Amino acid sequence: MVVKDKLKTLYQLQQVDLKLDGLLEERGDLPAEVDELEKKITLLKTQIKENDDYLKKAVVRKKEIDKELDDVRKRIDKYTDMRIKVKTNREYDALSKQIDNLKEKLQELHKELENIQSKEVVSSRDVDKLKQEYEEEEKVYSSKKVELEELVSLTHDEEKRYVKEREKFAQKIDKQTISRYEMIRKATKGKAIVPVVRRNACGGCYNVLPPQRLLDLRQMEKFFTCDHCGRILVPNEIVEETARDV
Ligand SMILES: [Zn+2]
User: Ligand 1 centroid to 229 CA: how many Å?
Assistant: First the structure.
Protein backbone atom coordinates (compact mmCIF):
# COMPACT_ATOMS: atom_id res chain seq x y z
CA MET A 1 0.00 0.00 0.00
CA VAL A 2 1.44 3.38 -0.95
CA VAL A 3 1.99 5.89 1.84
CA LYS A 4 -0.90 8.06 0.72
CA ASP A 5 -3.39 5.19 0.87
CA LYS A 6 -2.04 4.09 4.21
CA LEU A 7 -2.40 7.59 5.63
CA LYS A 8 -5.90 7.84 4.28
CA THR A 9 -6.94 4.47 5.67
CA LEU A 10 -5.45 5.35 9.03
CA TYR A 11 -7.28 8.65 9.03
CA GLN A 12 -10.54 6.88 8.15
CA LEU A 13 -9.91 4.39 10.93
CA GLN A 14 -9.52 7.24 13.36
CA GLN A 15 -12.79 8.83 12.21
CA VAL A 16 -14.53 5.59 13.20
CA ASP A 17 -12.61 5.37 16.48
CA LEU A 18 -13.70 8.89 17.37
CA LYS A 19 -17.34 7.88 16.81
CA LEU A 20 -16.79 4.88 19.08
CA ASP A 21 -15.21 7.17 21.67
CA GLY A 22 -18.32 9.31 21.49
CA LEU A 23 -20.55 6.31 22.21
CA LEU A 24 -18.42 5.29 25.18
CA GLU A 25 -18.42 8.82 26.48
CA GLU A 26 -22.21 8.80 26.58
CA ARG A 27 -21.97 5.98 29.10
CA GLY A 28 -19.97 8.25 31.38
CA ASP A 29 -18.65 6.78 34.59
CA LEU A 30 -21.28 4.07 34.67
CA PRO A 31 -19.11 1.20 33.30
CA ALA A 32 -16.38 1.97 35.84
CA GLU A 33 -18.95 2.21 38.64
CA VAL A 34 -20.47 -1.16 37.72
CA ASP A 35 -16.98 -2.68 37.63
CA GLU A 36 -16.15 -1.26 41.04
CA LEU A 37 -19.40 -2.55 42.56
CA GLU A 38 -18.83 -5.96 41.06
CA LYS A 39 -15.42 -6.16 42.72
CA LYS A 40 -16.90 -5.02 46.02
CA ILE A 41 -19.65 -7.62 46.09
CA THR A 42 -17.24 -10.37 45.03
CA LEU A 43 -15.03 -9.46 47.97
CA LEU A 44 -18.02 -9.42 50.34
CA LYS A 45 -19.09 -12.83 49.05
CA THR A 46 -15.63 -14.23 49.79
CA GLN A 47 -15.62 -12.76 53.28
CA ILE A 48 -19.09 -14.16 54.01
CA LYS A 49 -17.99 -17.59 52.80
CA GLU A 50 -14.87 -17.50 54.95
CA ASN A 51 -16.93 -16.71 58.04
CA ASP A 52 -19.60 -19.29 57.20
CA ASP A 53 -16.90 -21.91 56.68
CA TYR A 54 -15.38 -21.08 60.05
CA LEU A 55 -18.76 -21.33 61.78
CA LYS A 56 -19.42 -24.73 60.19
CA LYS A 57 -15.99 -26.00 61.22
CA ALA A 58 -16.56 -24.67 64.73
CA VAL A 59 -19.74 -26.72 65.12
CA VAL A 60 -17.93 -29.89 64.06
CA ARG A 61 -14.97 -29.22 66.35
CA LYS A 62 -17.25 -28.43 69.31
CA LYS A 63 -18.94 -31.81 68.91
CA GLU A 64 -15.55 -33.49 68.80
CA ILE A 65 -14.46 -31.64 71.93
CA ASP A 66 -17.64 -32.71 73.74
CA LYS A 67 -16.86 -36.31 72.93
CA GLU A 68 -13.23 -35.92 73.99
CA LEU A 69 -14.27 -34.26 77.25
CA ASP A 70 -16.64 -37.10 77.97
CA ASP A 71 -13.95 -39.63 77.24
CA VAL A 72 -11.35 -37.88 79.43
CA ARG A 73 -13.78 -37.54 82.33
CA LYS A 74 -14.63 -41.24 82.14
CA ARG A 75 -10.97 -42.15 82.18
CA ILE A 76 -10.35 -39.87 85.18
CA ASP A 77 -13.20 -41.61 87.01
CA LYS A 78 -11.86 -45.00 86.05
CA TYR A 79 -8.32 -44.22 87.23
CA THR A 80 -9.61 -42.63 90.42
CA ASP A 81 -11.54 -45.82 91.18
CA MET A 82 -8.51 -47.93 90.39
CA ARG A 83 -6.33 -45.79 92.62
CA ILE A 84 -8.44 -46.58 95.67
CA LYS A 85 -7.79 -50.27 95.19
CA VAL A 86 -4.05 -50.28 94.51
CA LYS A 87 -1.64 -51.99 96.84
CA THR A 88 1.70 -50.28 96.21
CA ASN A 89 2.91 -46.72 96.26
CA ARG A 90 4.38 -47.14 92.81
CA GLU A 91 1.02 -48.10 91.34
CA TYR A 92 -0.63 -45.26 93.22
CA ASP A 93 1.88 -42.71 91.89
CA ALA A 94 1.60 -44.05 88.36
CA LEU A 95 -2.18 -43.66 88.39
CA SER A 96 -1.93 -40.20 90.01
CA LYS A 97 0.34 -39.11 87.20
CA GLN A 98 -2.12 -40.37 84.61
CA ILE A 99 -4.97 -38.58 86.35
CA ASP A 100 -2.96 -35.33 86.41
CA ASN A 101 -2.23 -35.63 82.72
CA LEU A 102 -5.88 -36.19 81.97
CA LYS A 103 -6.87 -33.20 84.09
CA GLU A 104 -4.44 -31.11 82.11
CA LYS A 105 -5.98 -32.39 78.89
CA LEU A 106 -9.40 -31.50 80.31
CA GLN A 107 -8.23 -27.93 80.88
CA GLU A 108 -6.79 -27.69 77.39
CA LEU A 109 -10.07 -28.83 75.86
CA HIS A 110 -12.03 -26.33 77.92
CA LYS A 111 -9.72 -23.58 76.82
CA GLU A 112 -10.11 -24.56 73.18
CA LEU A 113 -13.87 -24.65 73.58
CA GLU A 114 -13.97 -21.16 75.09
CA ASN A 115 -11.74 -19.91 72.34
CA ILE A 116 -14.03 -21.33 69.66
CA GLN A 117 -17.10 -19.91 71.36
CA SER A 118 -15.74 -16.39 71.52
CA LYS A 119 -14.57 -16.59 67.91
CA GLU A 120 -18.02 -17.82 66.92
CA VAL A 121 -19.61 -14.75 68.48
CA VAL A 122 -17.33 -12.43 66.49
CA SER A 123 -17.76 -14.43 63.33
CA SER A 124 -21.56 -14.49 63.45
CA ARG A 125 -21.64 -10.78 64.16
CA ASP A 126 -19.31 -10.19 61.19
CA VAL A 127 -21.36 -12.43 58.95
CA ASP A 128 -24.55 -10.56 59.78
CA LYS A 129 -22.91 -7.25 59.04
CA LEU A 130 -21.35 -8.52 55.83
CA LYS A 131 -24.61 -10.04 54.64
CA GLN A 132 -26.43 -6.80 55.24
CA GLU A 133 -23.75 -4.88 53.40
CA TYR A 134 -23.83 -7.42 50.58
CA GLU A 135 -27.59 -7.03 50.18
CA GLU A 136 -27.31 -3.26 50.00
CA GLU A 137 -24.42 -3.28 47.53
CA GLU A 138 -26.07 -5.97 45.46
CA LYS A 139 -29.18 -3.80 45.09
CA VAL A 140 -27.13 -0.82 43.90
CA TYR A 141 -25.10 -3.06 41.60
CA SER A 142 -28.16 -4.66 40.01
CA SER A 143 -29.85 -1.37 39.27
CA LYS A 144 -26.67 0.21 37.90
CA LYS A 145 -26.06 -2.84 35.78
CA VAL A 146 -29.55 -2.67 34.30
CA GLU A 147 -29.05 1.03 33.70
CA LEU A 148 -25.79 0.34 31.88
CA GLU A 149 -27.30 -2.48 29.84
CA GLU A 150 -30.11 -0.22 28.74
CA LEU A 151 -27.62 2.45 27.79
CA VAL A 152 -25.50 -0.04 25.89
CA SER A 153 -28.50 -1.48 24.07
CA LEU A 154 -29.49 2.00 22.90
CA THR A 155 -26.32 2.27 20.89
CA HIS A 156 -25.67 -1.41 20.34
CA ASP A 157 -26.41 -1.46 16.61
CA GLU A 158 -24.47 1.71 16.04
CA GLU A 159 -21.53 0.32 17.97
CA LYS A 160 -21.60 -2.94 16.05
CA ARG A 161 -21.59 -1.07 12.77
CA TYR A 162 -18.61 1.03 13.83
CA VAL A 163 -16.67 -1.96 15.07
CA LYS A 164 -17.21 -3.70 11.73
CA GLU A 165 -16.22 -0.58 9.86
CA ARG A 166 -13.14 -0.22 12.01
CA GLU A 167 -12.16 -3.79 11.27
CA LYS A 168 -12.46 -3.13 7.54
CA PHE A 169 -9.92 -0.30 7.75
CA ALA A 170 -7.66 -1.97 10.30
CA GLN A 171 -7.29 -5.06 8.12
CA LYS A 172 -5.71 -3.01 5.37
CA ILE A 173 -2.94 -1.58 7.54
CA ASP A 174 0.11 -3.43 8.85
CA LYS A 175 0.17 -4.32 12.54
CA GLN A 176 3.17 -2.13 13.28
CA THR A 177 1.42 1.00 12.03
CA ILE A 178 -1.76 0.08 13.88
CA SER A 179 0.06 -0.39 17.15
CA ARG A 180 1.94 2.87 16.65
CA TYR A 181 -1.40 4.59 16.00
CA GLU A 182 -2.93 3.03 19.09
CA MET A 183 0.00 4.02 21.25
CA ILE A 184 -0.25 7.66 20.20
CA ARG A 185 -4.01 7.59 20.73
CA LYS A 186 -3.56 6.27 24.21
CA ALA A 187 -0.90 8.85 25.03
CA THR A 188 -2.91 11.77 23.66
CA LYS A 189 -6.28 10.39 24.84
CA GLY A 190 -7.79 11.24 21.47
CA LYS A 191 -6.33 11.79 18.06
CA ALA A 192 -3.22 10.08 16.74
CA ILE A 193 -3.39 11.45 13.23
CA VAL A 194 -4.05 15.14 12.68
CA PRO A 195 -4.15 17.55 9.75
CA VAL A 196 -2.21 20.78 9.44
CA VAL A 197 -4.41 23.61 10.60
CA ARG A 198 -4.32 27.36 10.12
CA ARG A 199 -0.96 29.13 10.19
CA ASN A 200 0.77 25.82 9.48
CA ALA A 201 0.19 24.47 12.93
CA CYS A 202 -0.15 20.85 14.08
CA GLY A 203 -3.85 20.04 14.42
CA GLY A 204 -3.16 18.23 17.67
CA CYS A 205 -1.04 20.56 19.77
CA TYR A 206 -1.22 23.73 17.62
CA ASN A 207 2.52 24.24 17.55
CA VAL A 208 3.80 25.69 14.28
CA LEU A 209 5.41 23.13 11.99
CA PRO A 210 8.75 23.84 10.28
CA PRO A 211 8.33 24.80 6.58
CA GLN A 212 10.43 21.84 5.46
CA ARG A 213 8.06 19.47 7.26
CA LEU A 214 5.16 20.93 5.31
CA LEU A 215 6.98 20.41 2.03
CA ASP A 216 7.93 16.84 2.99
CA LEU A 217 4.43 16.10 4.03
CA ARG A 218 3.07 17.04 0.64
CA GLN A 219 5.32 14.45 -1.02
CA MET A 220 3.62 11.70 1.00
CA GLU A 221 6.65 9.45 0.71
CA LYS A 222 6.61 8.48 4.36
CA PHE A 223 4.90 9.23 7.65
CA PHE A 224 5.78 12.53 9.33
CA THR A 225 5.05 13.39 12.89
CA CYS A 226 4.82 16.58 14.90
CA ASP A 227 8.02 17.20 16.89
CA HIS A 228 6.04 18.52 19.83
CA CYS A 229 3.27 16.00 20.39
CA GLY A 230 4.37 13.01 18.29
CA ARG A 231 1.08 12.79 16.40
CA ILE A 232 1.14 11.58 12.81
CA LEU A 233 0.47 14.40 10.36
CA VAL A 234 -1.99 13.91 7.55
CA PRO A 235 -1.97 16.17 4.46
CA ASN A 236 -5.10 18.23 4.07
CA GLU A 237 -5.88 16.77 0.69
CA ILE A 238 -6.48 13.43 2.38
CA VAL A 239 -8.75 15.03 4.93
CA GLU A 240 -10.71 16.66 2.14
CA GLU A 241 -10.85 13.44 0.15
CA THR A 242 -12.15 11.55 3.15
CA ALA A 243 -14.78 14.18 3.82
CA ARG A 244 -15.93 13.90 0.20
CA ASP A 245 -16.16 10.12 0.42
CA VAL A 246 -18.61 10.19 3.31
ZN1 LIG B 1 1.61 18.45 17.56
Answer: 4
